[in-house]
Amino acid sequence: MWGLFILVFLLTKLKKIGKFSYFKEVGSQAIQDITQRIDRACKLFFRNLKHKIRTAPPSFKKIRKYKSFTLKQAGWKLLKGNIIEINKQKYKYFKSRDIEGIVKTITIKRDTLGDIYLYFVCETNENKVLARTGKSVGYDFGLKQFLTASDNEDIKAPLFFKQNANDIKKANRILSRKK
Prior knowledge:
Helix content is about 30%, strand content about 20%. The chain is an alpha+beta fold. The protein is extended and about 65 Å long.
């Protein structure tokens, strides 16, 4: 815990140095989340060393290779019409489903293609409890049978290619006639 406190204290000092001025572009809570990630990685490394699990020390990425950051309470605002405001700049996004409950944190991630995704962590009043039956089942992936279950409820392979084989043949014939 003290290591985390020292990291946050040092970050406030680093913001004043010109070399690290880019820390000012991202909200303070995003920087604190980065220090929490570093703290978790170090704790995991030392725990693995203690239990003699093969491990490597945490590595640090260049700032441009960083794939995500998390905003907690401040630095963002949801607006109407699928618009989010981050650091006084508005962005339009596609909503895959409605946001239910109170949004606690937002994580902005960039994949290898450069597409950006927003992940909302919400607090809801629902307590979903799954019914426990005490039964378990094992599955085996096969070549002829897609899934073979131990309770005899087998699942056949979807065979998407065979379903569309005629369409593919027709498209190839049309393509071969073109110049």
